[in-house]
Amino acid sequence: MKNIDLAWLRPVTEKVVPVLKKYRAVLIVLIAGVLLLASGGLFKDTQQVKAPSAEGLEPALFDLDEFEQSLNEQLSAIDGVGRVSLMLSLEETEESVYAVNVRRTENGASVQSYESNLTVVSDGSYGENPVTVKNLLPTFRGAVVLCDGANNTTVRYAVTQAVSTLCGVGTDKVTVLKMAADS
């Protein structure tokens, strides 16, 4: 086996080691940052989010009936509530905000014109879909809840708080009433 001459390494280490000792905290932070970047999301949630396909560009719409059904199930699980019937009223419906390209042109000192175009994505078969920037969920106006346990103030309070929290309305916008026995 051949011996490797490392004599040239001694002068380099004599110069580098004091610098490394002086700036060791900075180096530790730098190395930690590089390791985090190199991990490439190793510590992220393992659930993958799929990109929408060309035919699936439309966002999922809010379904009021499905939301009411889910809320009915949650309310009926509260101790003492019994049967539940819920009705929600909407202040505003769902709205989609689309990406728009705006171009400004100036003709002289005081004349300006604006032109805007809706940004679209081609689906590959001569169809185009607008690019959605965000979807605004509906705003609730209020709620009426009919339940068997509405005579109990604790149950009425729990139902009011639950509906208020889930729908984002004040407790004064939630009415909890006793359900008729024959319903």
Task: Tell me what the structure shows.
It is a single chain. By secondary structure, this protein is of the alpha+beta class. The chain is built from 4 helices and 9 strands. It has a 3-stranded mixed β-sheet, covered by helices on one side. Strands 2-7 form a two-stranded antiparallel sheet. A hairpin with a 3-residue loop joins strand 3 (100-107) and strand 4. The longest helix has 16 residues, at 24-39. It starts with 8 loop residues before the first helix and ends in a 5-residue tail after the last strand.
List its traits.
three-stranded mixed beta sheet; flat
Describe the structure in brief.
With 183 residues, the protein is an alpha+beta fold.
Percentage of β-strand residues: 25-35%
Oligomeric state as shown: single chain
Number of helices: 4
Write down the secondary-structure element order. Answer: HHHEEEEEEEEHE
Widest sheet: strand ordering: 1-8-9
What is the straight-line distance between the termini? 95 Å
- How does the overall form come out from the CA principal axes? flat
Mean pLDDT over the residues: 79
Structural class, from helix and strand content?
alpha+beta
Q: Biggest sheet, open or closed, and with what strands and sense?
A: 3 strands, mixed
Number of strands: 9
Alpha-carbon Rg, integer: 31 Å
Low-confidence stretches: 46-57
Helical proportion, percent range = 25-40%
